[in-house]
Each structure stands twice: as structure tokens, then as C-alpha cells.
Amino acid sequence: MWVAGAARSALKKLVGLPFENYELIKIPNEKKEIKIEIHSVGLLKDESHALGITFAKSGLDLDITQNLEIWTIAFLEKISSNNFVKTNPINIIAGSGVGIKEKTSEICISDFAKEVLYENLLDIIPNGFILKLEIIFPNGKFLAERTSNKSFGIVDGLSIIGTSAETYSSASPDQLEEAKTELAKLIKNDFKEKVVFVIGENGFNLAKTCNLKLPIIKVGNWIGPLIVDAAIKKVKTVILFGYHGKLIKLAGGIFHTHNHLADGRIEILVYLAVKEKLPPEIIIKLSHLNTIEDALIHLERFNKPIAEKLFQNLSNTIEKRSIEYVNRYVKTDMEIAAIIFDRKRKIRWSGTIGNHYISYFQ
After folding, report:
1. Structural domains in the chain?
2. Is the pTM higher than 0.70?
């Protein structure tokens, strides 16, 4: 929404329309509009480009993009007569701090985000021109280091992967209630008593590419309360599918996985390494690393079979601690399976129960 607001303001400046300190952004396929405050706008490069600036105001306390500074640079390019029919009217360019796909260098932007831009910009683009729109997040590269973007092949900055006009916190109780409601709807329909719980938009997208024959629910960070809810609703099998840097928290008994509330990932891995009786120098090295991916790389350099065994035990521990957590609140014979992927989006490990279901993801 804020990218679209800054872009619309910049484009209006470029075509000579007056500046206003807000833009009303239309939502595709909806009648409502959202008012976006614009910080400033100005002409650049002999007035051939225009810069629009805004600050994201999600209103969420636990949101690293709250107050994110957003720049959009608009430039109009005349369409040659040969390409008039074939030309895409908007060329969206990843500027500094905006995430790109590591394999293709394409901007990482969702279809919904593109629809929002088209909905709010096409009516201003003059006939015979295309809009070149560069998006810049001045602090994006720094903030991306605090996300799991790299684990999903997104580098150099923050992705623009929103799927709705609403903002929500994965740490918010509303997100838990939404997931509970979705689970209840599944059970009312033709439910096979098995469900996949996955954390986050990127993990959700990866799960969908596996062509699963099972229902998938994006659970935010409320894993613990949701698997208890599944047990109460008599679900037979819950498959926890996620990135090692998230699911490892469950092995340490942390069942609300938002980073702002609890971390301890390296400490949990160190504990598992001690149980495996790894050499002290390796354990000390692990304790000084920043991410689980760094730890995995270090362990594989030391000894690949040992690294595999350690992460296999991690998967088993996730399953064990998860069912122990559920049984604190409700006695159940529900199965909990763990299936884990790495930063290259490669499915790597599964627990004892997860072994029975990993073929579903391949």
C-alpha cells in the first residue's frame, strides 16, 4: 500500500499534477480505499524523473518494517511504434534494499502487490508511454538480515510479498484465531484427519509447490496453542513443515516462535551438540555463531555425517517436545511429524514420524 502511495504521488508529480500529502489507494476487486500519507515528492534529473517518499505505518509493534522509509522513482519512456501493443505498461525495478530472487535476479514481488500498483497507476500513465518504477528501501538491506529471506532464496533486501491490503502480526492473537477458524472449517469438510502446519508466507509458498494432497494452514508463530487445538478437535496427524531456523525453537520448548518473544536457537543447537558429545572446540565455535544456517555450514565442514545426525536428532526432538507440550493440556494419541528444509528451500530432514510423510513433499 505504501509503495503504491509513493509511486502514485511521484507519477502525478511527473505529469504535472499538484502534490497532496496523501493518496487514496484502491484495493483490487474491492470498493474500499486506503489513505496513505505521503512524506514528500520532487523532480530529479532535469525533471525527467520524480521521487516519492513515504513511511510504512503498519501499526504493529512487532513489525520490523514499521516506519520503513520507502522511495519510488518514476520515469516515463516513450513506446516505439513497433512495440506499442506488446509493451508492459509498468516496468517494476528493484532498487537498493529491495529483495531479488537469488537464482534469477528478478524483483521479489507478489502478484497482489503488482495488482495494487497497476490499479493505482495505469490511469495516470500518458498514452504512448510506459512507466519505469524503481522501488528503494534505504534501510532494506540491513533489515533483511533480521528476516529469513535468505533461507528462501531472496537476497539484497526486503521482499514485497503481501497477499492482502490488511497488515497483521504473526505474534497477534488474531492470527491464532484465524488459524483455529480455518482448521475448524477443514474439519467440517472432507477432512482426511491429517493437516500441515507451516510458518510464514515463504514456507507456505514452498509447501504449495510440493503438490500436497493434504490441507495446509499458515500458522504464524502460534504453533503451540494451535497443535493443542488440533488435538482437542481430534485431528489424527499434524505435520510441522518449516525452516530449520524456526522449528528448532520447538526442540527447546519454545512454542510461540516470534523472535521478539523468544529466541535461543543457537543455545538449543549447542545443547543438542553436547548430547551428541561433539568435540568441545566445535561446540564453542557453534556458541559464537549468529544463525542456524551458519552452524550447519560449520558442522558440514567439520564432518557431514555428524552434521546430518545432529539435525536428524533435532527433528526427533521437535516431535518429542511437541507431543509433550500438547499432553500438558490434553491427553491425545495424535501424531506430530516434523519435516524441515534448509535455506536453499531443500527438504532435508524429518523426525521418526515425519519419515512416514516426507514422500508427500517430494
Report:
1. 2-158 (3.30.2110.10), 173-361 (no CATH)
2. no
